[in-house]
Design brief:
Oligomer: single chain
Largest sheet: 7 strands, mixed
Strand order of the largest sheet: 3-2-1-4-5-7-6
Number of strands: 7
CATH topology: Rossmann fold
CATH class: Alpha Beta
CATH architecture: 3-Layer(aba) Sandwich
CATH superfamily: Vaccinia Virus protein VP39
Bound molecules: S-adenosylmethionine
Structural class: alpha/beta
Number of domains: 1
Order of helices and strands: HEHEHEHEHEHEE
Distance between the termini: 37 Å
Strand content: 15-25%
Number of helices: 6
Shape: globular
Length: 204
């Protein structure tokens, strides 16, 4: 392939030529979601993923977004308003409560759910996702997910508390029945330290 014919990637990486953990999640969501779908951002933070999901599902779609930090909720609402998005509900609550906020008629109908774990960039690094609530939220999320729906998890084992959460997710993912779920893991393998990982769960 000549240099001139190399296509420029749509999802750039902050660390090199391949997508980051969140970049992989975006690519997969872009591939699978359709206008009109219902989706969940389980950790809205600064609202980048919420906006991305809202734009993918369009004006006929529905988005629910969750965060425990008020600053994250405010920033996500601001970002959505700036983009003219009217289809998203941003909830100031932990993702482990998501089933209480998504109407019962949408349970089992959600096409995509994104978790972007860890701490809010540019904010208080002591507020991180916690293993126990993450696992509870994942269990609820699988119930909300539609057949052929996609759940992605960006996991950051490098920060304090992140390695324990990553181990718990590894155990949780390995325990999912292959009759009901396909699970894949995307991560750099030739880097030292603890690079971010993208976990993907597809419901049969
Ligand atoms: C890596 S950030 C998310 C980045 C975000 N998706 C974005 O696009 O900017 C992780 C977020 O998870 C939030 N968080 C921590 N525990 C949570 C919980 N139990 N439920 C929902 N969000 C939580 C943090 O407050 C933080 O904003």
């Amino acid at each position: 392939m000549s240099e001139n014919s190399v296509p420029s990637p749509r999802i750039a990486s902050s660390i090199g030529g391949l997508p980051s953990a969140v970049g992989w999640a975006h690519l997969l969501m872009e591939d699978r979601l359709r206008p009109g779908d219902s989706v969940i951002d389980a950790t809205c933070g600064n609202g980048h993923d919420t906006l991305f999901l809202a734009q993918l599902v369009g004006s006929q779609g529905r988005v629910w977004a969750f965060d425990v930090q008020e600053a994250a909720v405010v920033e996500t609402r601001r970002r959505l308003a700036e983009a003219g998005i009217l289809t998203a509900t941003v909830v100031h609550a932990g993702h482990e409560t998501m089933a209480q906020h998504v109407p019962p008629e949408r349970h089992g109908q959600v096409a995509g759910i994104m978790f972007n774990l860890g701490y809010l960039p540019g904010s208080d690094k002591s507020v991180i996702t916690l293993t126990e609530t993450t696992l509870r939220a994942l269990s609820v999320a699988l119930d909300l997910l539609a057949p052929r729906g996609l759940l992605t998890l960006a996991v950051y084992p490098g920060h304090e508390g992140g390695a324990q959460e990553q181990q718990a997710i590894t155990q949780w993912a390995a325990g999912l029945s292959p009759r009901h779920y396909e699970v894949q893991l995307l991560r750099p393998i030739n880097r030292s330290a603890s690079p971010p990982e993208c976990w993907v769960v597809w419901k049969r």
